[in-house]
Amino acid sequence: MKTLVSLFRNNIREYGMLIALIVIMIFFQYTTDGILLKPINITNLVLQNSYIIVMAMGMLLIIVAGSIDLSVGSILAFIGAVAAVLMVKLHVHWSITMLVSLIIGAIAGVWQGYWVAYVKIPSFIVTLAGMLIFRGLTLLILQGEAVGPFPVEFQRLSTGFIPDFFHGDGIHITTILIGALLSVLLIVFDLRGRKNQQKYGFEVTPFVFFVVKNVFITAAIMWLCYLMASYKGLPNVLVILFVLVSAYAFITSSTVIGRRIYAMGGNEKAARLSGVDTRRLLFGTFVNMGVLSAIAGMIVSARLNTATPKAGVGFELDVIAACFIGGASATGGVGKVIGAVVGAFLIGVMNNGMSILGIGIDWQQAIKGFVLLLAVFFDVYNKNKNA
User: Fold this and answer.
1) Which of 153, 251, 298, 373 is the most buried (most CB within 10 A)?
2) What residues contact 204, with CB distance under 8 A and at least 6 apart?
C-alpha cells in the first residue's frame, strides 16, 4: 500500500490528468444521453483533435526546453494555403505537394529557431512576430479567398480509413486485430521495462498493480477499437498519430537528444557546461515544431477539403493548454508526450461535450481558460510544497 501511495505521489500530474479525463468522459456521456461515446462521435473526436495532438508533441519539446511558440496556428494556415495553391492552381501532384509542404514547414522552423537560439531574442517575441508574419502570408497567398477542393488521395490523409482486409459483415475485423496486436505489444514492452528495472535494482510497482494496469489498458484499447470497428474502422490519421506518439515517446524517454532537452530545460547553464550544444538543441526543437505544424496544416486542409484564411485561428492556445494540462511545467524541464496527448484529448472531449450540450463558444473559452489556470496552479503549488 505504501508503494502505491508513493507511486501515485511521484506521478500525481500524470495519473491525475488521466483520472480527470475519465471523469469528464463519464460526465459528458451521462449528460449527452450517451452521444459522446457513440462510434461515429468517437471517430469525429479523433479527427477533430488529431492536429492538436500532432502539434502538442512539438510544443511539448519547446516548453520542456524552456521556450514557447505562439505561431503554430499561423504556420498551419500558411502550409494549408501553400498546399492548396500547389494542388488546385498549379496542378502539382499531391505527393510532391506534401513533400514541399514539409520542407516549407521546416524552413519556417529554421527562421524562428535562428532568432531564438542564436540571436537570443525571447521566443515569445519571435513567435508572436511569426504569428503575424505567417498569417499575413496566408492572406497574401489566398487573396482572402478559400481555395479547394483537393484530390481525393490528399483528402484521405484526414478523412480516409484503413481497409478491412477480412471484409467483416458489420464489423471491421482488421481494426479488432490491430487493437489486439497493439495490446500484446504494449504488454510485452511494459514487461520488458519492468524486468530491466528489476535487473538494475530500481523500485517497481507491485505485480498485482502491474497486472491490473495492463488489464485496464488492454480493455480500454479493445473497447475503443470495437467502437470504431462498428463504424468504419480506424481512420488513417489515427495510424499517423500512433506512429508519431510512439516515436516521440521513445525519443524523449530513451535517447540522448531527449535527455539533453530535459537537461537544458531544467538548467541551461549546467547543460552547456556539461558539453551540450544548447543553441543547436533549441534550434532543432523549433525546426521540429515547424515540420509538425506542416503535418497538422495538411491534416486540417484535407479534412475541410479547402484552405481558408481563417484556418488555425486560436489553435496555438489549445496546443499550449494541452501541454500544460498534460503535466508540462511552465518553467521547463518537465513534461511527457503521453501527458500532452491526454491533455489534448481532455480539451477535445470538453469541446465536443459542450458543443453537444449546446453551450456557447463564449462559455467554452471561459471554462477552458479556467481549467488551464487550475493546471498551472497545480504545478506551481506542488513545486512550492516540495521546495
Assistant:
1) 298
2) 194, 197, 198, 210
User: Number of C-alpha atoms within 13 angstroms, CB side, residue 17?
Assistant: 31
Q: Please report, rounded to a whole number, the percentage of residues in the chain having pLDDT higher than 70.
A: 94
Contact 248, 337 (CB under 8 A): yes
- As a whole number, mean pLDDT of residues 318-347 equals 86
Residue type present at position 250: F
Grid cell locating 141: 497567398
> What is the average pLDDT across 245-268?
89
Task: Give the per-residue pLDDT at 334.
Answer: 83
Position 385 confidence tier, pLDDT thresholds 50, 70, 90: low
Q: Is the pLDDT of residue 2 over 90?
A: no
- Measured on CA atoms in the order 18, 23, 26, 29, is the torsion positive or negative? negative
Estimate the crossing angle of helix 39-64 against helix 256-266, to 10 degrees. Answer: 70
User: Residue 137 is placed in which grid cell?
Assistant: 502570408
Burial profile 178-188: b = 16 or more Cβ within 10 angstroms, e = fewer: bbeebbeeebe
- 3-class SS at 93? coil
Residue type at position 57: M
DSSP state of 86: I
CA–CA dist 364, 378 (Å, integer): 21
Mapping DSSP to helix (H, G, I), strand (E, B) and coil, where does residue 311 land? Answer: coil
SS3 of residue 358 by DSSP? coil
Q: Supply the mean pLDDT for the chain.
A: 87
Q: E strands, the chain, where? A: none
Provide the pLDDT confidence category of residue 324 given band limits of 50, 70 and 90: confident
- Counted residue by residue, the chain has a size of 387
Rg (CA), the chain: 21
Identify the pLDDT of residue 230.
87
Task: Give dist(CA 134, CA 71) in Å, integer.
Answer: 8
Task: Phi first, then psi: give them for residue 161, nearest 5 degrees.
Answer: -130, 150
Which secondary-structure segment (H or E) carries 377?
A: helix 361-386
